[in-house]
Amino acid sequence: MNVDAGVAVPLLGWLSSGLAAVALTPRNRTARALLAAGVLLVGSWLCEGAAAGTDGASASGAFLRVLTDVLFLGGLASVVAVLSTYPDGRFDRAWTRVATQVLAVLAVLGPAAQLVGSSELVVGGEPSTAAPNPFAIDALTPLGAAGGAVVASEPAWLVLGVGMLGARFVRSSPADRRELLRPLAGAGLLAVLLVVVVTSWVTDTAVAVSVPLFLLALGLFPVVLLVGISAQSRRLAGDLAASRGRLAAAEDEVRRSIERDLHDGVQQQLMALLSLTELAARQLRRDPVRAELTLADVRSQARDTVEDLREVVSGIRPPVLADSGVAAALESRLARLPETVQVDADAARGMRWPPGIEATAYFVACEGVTNALKHASGARVRVTLEGDPDQLVVEVRDDGPGLGTTANGTGLAGLRDRVESWGGTFEVRTDAPRGTLVRARLPVGALR
């Protein structure tokens, strides 16, 4: 880094883009990381200027030099977080989350190790600014060297971030790839311009426009990210409106289905029971024996009506779900299915989650099994339920031919709406001939 007023332009671009992104979508992790990157990079630039104007051998000068590196590395870690979660704010793999967390820790530990173990400290990585470190401890020289290696690895952090973005691009659907292509192209352009700048420095070839052009591209890159975050926000708003419409339509259909079940089944049975009781009342005076037989029919039909009513109620929310939890409810429901359907709920047995979370997981599993039996007849189906106090995860996996073009049918779309209404994530992966995976992750934290 050079303390140059021209650097202020791209830094302000990062800061203003971060502010705009957070104002637009305050709960989006990518937007918050973009703002953090802008704040930390601007803070690093200001500290670098202050450090250059102080005596490097003094305590304040040493602290400013180390703080400059902490803020700059923290800014780079935030940039990696932006690239690994762009544009929806979600890590699509656990290792990307861990990697960004490790970088955030190294951003502090690396410069701190230099403060206690390096005999000299520099400003912005420039050897010409080296000054004695008043806090250096000879016995901790290896620690200082390790800290210096961390600080010197700054370019690798950016390469890692771009690599995460590229991996996300490869794993994404064609529609999502179009959104990810813009920042990838921007990163490629920055890499080309950086090569031109470095080449001009190494070869002493004067390229008058290379540095200003690189700084301009660097300042426009967060604007590209902001455009993507804004587009994602508008798409999510549209999806939310459509999802609410589908949920309302689904609830209306459920009500009509319950009405039909009650009218065509239970109501007719109750009417028959009423007729039989009236008949038994008339027979009681004339023929008590026949009245006793009629009352036996009443008892039998009453039991059948109770069972039918339980079936209707079970379709809404089975009593065992409220009484014993989702693990017991799934085992009870799926025990009546063919032996090819297996349930692994040991990791969730005895645990409880909010009623809405449990009901959503229950219906995801039931609908997933129904789809598997319908589209993969004879295939082995495995339902897995696991979780902890913070989340509940349900998976339905089969080894059939895959759903193919039916993978986004209305039933699964309804499940996606239901899961996302609780702040969860819903995933359907189908890969013929290895079967289909339906997974829902329901975070309890979204309710807090």
Automatic annotation (TrEMBL):
<dbReference type="InterPro" id="IPR050482">
    <property type="entry name" value="Sensor_HK_TwoCompSys"/>
</dbReference>
<dbReference type="Pfam" id="PF07730">
    <property type="entry name" value="HisKA_3"/>
</dbReference>
<keyword id="KW-0418">Kinase</keyword>
<dbReference type="InterPro" id="IPR036890">
    <property type="entry name" value="HATPase_C_sf"/>
</dbReference>
<dbReference type="GO" id="GO:0005524">
    <property type="term" value="F:ATP binding"/>
</dbReference>
<feature type="domain" description="Histidine kinase/HSP90-like ATPase">
    <location>
        <begin position="356"/>
        <end position="446"/>
    </location>
</feature>
<dbReference type="GO" id="GO:0046983">
    <property type="term" value="F:protein dimerization activity"/>
</dbReference>
<keyword id="KW-0547">Nucleotide-binding</keyword>
<feature type="transmembrane region" description="Helical">
    <location>
        <begin position="63"/>
        <end position="86"/>
    </location>
</feature>
<feature type="transmembrane region" description="Helical">
    <location>
        <begin position="98"/>
        <end position="119"/>
    </location>
</feature>
<keyword id="KW-1133">Transmembrane helix</keyword>
<keyword id="KW-0902">Two-component regulatory system</keyword>
<feature type="transmembrane region" description="Helical">
    <location>
        <begin position="180"/>
        <end position="202"/>
    </location>
</feature>
<feature type="transmembrane region" description="Helical">
    <location>
        <begin position="6"/>
        <end position="26"/>
    </location>
</feature>
<dbReference type="GO" id="GO:0016020">
    <property type="term" value="C:membrane"/>
</dbReference>
<feature type="transmembrane region" description="Helical">
    <location>
        <begin position="139"/>
        <end position="160"/>
    </location>
</feature>
<feature type="transmembrane region" description="Helical">
    <location>
        <begin position="208"/>
        <end position="229"/>
    </location>
</feature>
<dbReference type="InterPro" id="IPR003594">
    <property type="entry name" value="HATPase_dom"/>
</dbReference>
<dbReference type="InterPro" id="IPR011712">
    <property type="entry name" value="Sig_transdc_His_kin_sub3_dim/P"/>
</dbReference>
<keyword id="KW-0808">Transferase</keyword>
<keyword id="KW-0472">Membrane</keyword>
<dbReference type="Pfam" id="PF02518">
    <property type="entry name" value="HATPase_c"/>
</dbReference>
<keyword id="KW-0597">Phosphoprotein</keyword>
<protein>
    <recommendedName>
        <fullName>histidine kinase</fullName>
        <ecNumber>2.7.13.3</ecNumber>
    </recommendedName>
</protein>
<feature type="transmembrane region" description="Helical">
    <location>
        <begin position="33"/>
        <end position="51"/>
    </location>
</feature>
<keyword id="KW-0812">Transmembrane</keyword>
<dbReference type="GO" id="GO:0000155">
    <property type="term" value="F:phosphorelay sensor kinase activity"/>
</dbReference>
<keyword id="KW-0067">ATP-binding</keyword>
